[in-house]
Amino acid sequence: MAFKLFDYNKETGKLFMDPGGIQRLRGLSSAPRFVSISGHSREGKSTLGNFLLASPVFETSDMVEGCTRGINCGISVDGSLAILDCEGLADVDQSGVPGLDAKLLATSLLCSDYSIFNAKKVLDETHIQEIGEMALEQRPGSGAPADFTRRRLHRHPRRHREAPPRRSEER
Fold first, then answer.
1. Alpha-carbon torsion angle 127, 47, 105, 142, nearest 10
2. What is the spatial distance between Cα 10 and Cα 100, in angstroms, rounded to a whole number?
3. Which 3 state secondary structure label does DSSP give 68?
4. Would you call 17 helix, strand, or coil by DSSP?
5. Distance between alpha carbon 33 and the CA centroid of its chain, in Å?
6. The model's pTM
7. CB of 52 within 8 A of CB of 3?
8. For residue 71, what are the β-bridge partners?
């Protein structure tokens, strides 16, 4: 089953890592590749995650209310893949939590090797602008768990190396 990796406090709007989720990740024998799935509310992110993992690990529903709160994580059977299922953007449950969409999106992107923006419709300029605006909202001091992302980048330097300098051509 999926487990909670990030949650938020509705009163303060602060995002935090779930201690149980941290323990589950530390218990893995090797570091999986992280794939985040984000998008608007009620557009099939959890269903897509279940499909990618070939197992019904994420809760799904055909009700108006979304199933996912914060960011949940599901691990493949062999442990090589971790799917991050992000709460839907503009979810009705987020009302009263300013900037939560930006925090969730930025956190899921920073923690991922790959990212999927799931949409039922064709992505248009409006979707791109919304993502850009949310990215601009996410600034230092806004409550995103930056320590986690710094540690993750430090733990996996092979994934975030700079390209070697180019040699100039000899003539």
1. 130
2. 9
3. coil
4. strand
5. 12
6. 0.71
7. no
8. 6, 86
